[in-house]
Amino acid sequence: MDRRREDGETRYWPLGPFKVRLPFWHYRFEWPDYCQGLLMCAVDLAAIPLMTELLGMPFEVALAVVLLNGFLYLAHHLLGDPVVPGWITPAIPLLMAYCQTFPEGPERIHALIAFQMMLGIFCIGLGASGLSTRVVRLVPPALRAGIIIGAGIAAVMTVFEVGGRFDSFPWTISIAIGAAFYLLFSRHFSQLKTSHPLWSLVGKLGIFPIIVVAIIIAPLFAEAPWPTIEWGFVSPDFATLWQEYTLFGLGLPPLPMFLQAIPTVLAAYIVVFGDVLQGKALLDEADVVRRDERVEYSPNRAHLIFGGRNATMSVIGPDVAMCGPLWAAMHVVIVERFKEGRRAMDSIFGGAGSFRWGTNTGLLLLPIVSLVQPILGVALALTLLIQGYVSVRIGVLAARSQRDLGIAGVIAAVLATKGAAWAFAVGVALCLLIYGRRFFQGEDDNTFTASDASEPASSEPSDRKPAE
Predict the structure, then answer these.
(1) Residue 256: which pLDDT band, with cuts at 50, 70 and 90?
(2) Which residue of 195, 221, 333, 387 is most buried, as measured by CB atoms within 10 A?
(3) Which residues contact 341 (CB under 8 A, 6 or more apart)?
(4) Is residue 184 a part of any domain in this protein?
(5) Has residue 24 been placed in a domain?
(6) In a domain, 66, yes or no
(7) Residue 185 in this model has a pLDDT that exceeds 90
(8) What is residue 140's DSSP assignment?
(9) Could you give the CA distance from residue 190 to residue 204 in angstroms, rounded to a whole number?
(10) Which residue has the higher pLDDT, 392 or 312?
(11) Which domain holds residue 93?
């Protein structure tokens, strides 16, 4: 059955700005990607410790949030966005630091609701107006670089702060992060992957092999119990979620909270836009190889979808991990398999969609959830540490001059210690003092050569593998 239109695009049902595609009808279901999704749902579950620690949610309530967010992941490929969506990982420490300025309880939950609702409405507005590609261009490169670097530093600080996750799992995190950096960033392992199919398979699994290592290491060092495998299906607590952690039970946040959230919303959006650019770059690379399928990626449509996800979750289940446009690790894996030809993957929508159907299935299966539950804190720490590495690297490359780097360093330090509002104020002041009339342009002193500037397009995806 040929599911292509005459222009090479996979068939769809038009629905305004969206292109509806259903499994089996519009795209071939890809069982390899579905099976991988069953395993990789473990990363989605790593959001649970965030919510239990920040909001005091019981495990079953946080699981309900993860399930709701997982269901909304399906909206991307179903509505025409050919990516594997995920969290806004670099912005998680920023959001946590912001929420912690409010007392734990209803006030902190209101702060999270206000932030996520503002972020969702802002992204929907940009997507609907077509302005999504212009907004970040108005942000000076030094300020952009500083926020991204600061997000990376904040991620690392979150793990190593007193009483943080490293104190709870020192040996497990040390060994696992060493293995993760070797598998994800080592030149030696990159060469090894080309020498044997087994190493190639390990490389394509993202951070899943590291999670398996953590499940074994943590009990050996007495840092977590051996998992107790339970059978059946999970039992999320939606009733408590909606009664105690949403608008239905707490009401709308007061107006000042929406205004207070604006700096953090803008900081998170700068990170989001970087993911949008990365997703498009990966698909453009695939277009060179796969001429048989015309893949259209629309930043405006993407904004409408992930903006809608954030707005929806702010109402039915506020989520500390947020709703981002890209899970870079798995998007890279899907795209690489897509490049192998039509026999390997008929359509990019089949790969991305089948993977997300798989993660949703895995989240419902109690054996998988119970297997990884003891080391969810480790999985989250690994994600934050590797994301910290990548954010600093990308932030440095976002700068265009040595002056940009100096400004960015100050902004990053302020952001990691004082929050987004102070960072924006300091960044704007420094850019005005140093660049004056060239506030928006800054300067380019050839600190980074053309080859450096082009590097993120080719190597950034592999560097950002664990970011969901």
Answers:
(1) very high
(2) 387
(3) 290
(4) yes
(5) no
(6) yes
(7) no
(8) -
(9) 11
(10) 312
(11) 30-463
